[in-house]
Design a protein that fits this description.
Layout (H helix, E strand, L loop, with lengths): L33 E5 L6 H11 L4 E2 L2 E3 L13 E3 L2 H9 L3 E7 L2 E6 H9 L4 E4 L2 H10 L5 E6 L3 H10 L5 H15 L7 E4 L3 H13 L3
Parallel strand pairs: 1-7, 1-8, 2-7, 3-4, 8-9
Antiparallel strand pairs: 3-6, 5-6
Helix pairs in contact: 1-7, 5-6
The structure holds guanosine-5'-monophosphate.
Length: 214
């Protein structure tokens, strides 16, 4: 399950606080080029990632496996690999996942091998995962990654986005909101906080962060 850290052991980064528009990674970051983007469900992580994929094809974005059903417009192998429980459990048992979590009744996990390959090649690599997954990656990478937390402009805005999506039944939305409350409380575990006021701004800040450590 563990991805070995790149090069010699090193202090974890600590550059907390909202990133300014010209955000840059802390100067001492020079090893793996792994960035972990996390934040509550509904905050807009996947929209940011879709925009990043369009704008910066040089940044490799990990495709997770999930047991959730595809939403309209989602393509197998692009947003996720959609698998059944049996296949997910097989991958987990075979040690093929870097991290995983059960979220609102479905399982999600990051296939280890493609991530390891990109890290070994020194390529910029992004994971978009939940808080629990981010904690597992921090453990596995011994802090050798940049952890970015995406916050909503306000709680009301997050509720609006989650209820307005209209793709999930009410009880699933309720579950997501209750997890979101816990996730927001963990924001200060991250190296950088970005507020999702605009997809374009967040994307620009992310690209700056990712490209500032080579
Ligand atoms: P959604 O169902 O809205 O696509 O995703 C639900 C949550 O699962 C989001 O917070 C998303 O970031 C998270 N997620 C997506 N892929 C992974 C993964 O591979 N691992 C973990 N731990 N969380 C994931």
């Amino acid at each position: 399950m563990a991805v070995p850290p790149h090069g010699e052991a090193r202090e974890a980064v600590a550059a907390r606080g909202a990133a300014p528009s010209g955000a840059s990674a802390p100067a001492e970051r020079r090893h793996s080029r792994l960035t972990v983007l996390s934040g509550p469900s509904g905050v807009g992580k996947s929209t940011v990632v879709a925009e990043l994929r369009r704008q910066s094809p040089d940044i490799w974005i990990s495709v997770s496996v999930t047991t959730r059903r595809p939403r309209p417009g989602e393509v197998n192998g692009r947003e996720y690999y959609f698998v059944d429980d049996r296949e997910f459990d097989r991958m987990l048992a075979a040690g093929e996942l870097l991290e995983w979590n059960e979220f609102a009744g479905n399982k999600y996990g990051t296939p280890l091998e493609p991530v390891r390959r990109r890290i070994d090649e020194g390529l910029p690599t992004l994971l978009e995962i939940d808080l629990n997954g981010a904690r597992q990656v921090r453990e596995a990478m011994k802090g050798d990654a940049l952890f970015v937390f995406l916050e909503p402009p306000s709680w009301e805005e997050l509720v609006r986005r989650l209820t307005g999506r209209g793709t999930e039944p009410a009880e699933v939305v309720e579950r997501r909101l209750s997890v979101a409350r816990e996730e927001l409380a963990a924001a200060d575990e991250f190296d950088v906080l970005l507020v999702n006021t605009s997809v374009q701004d967040v994307c620009r800040q992310l690209v700056t962060l990712i490209n500032s450590y080579r």
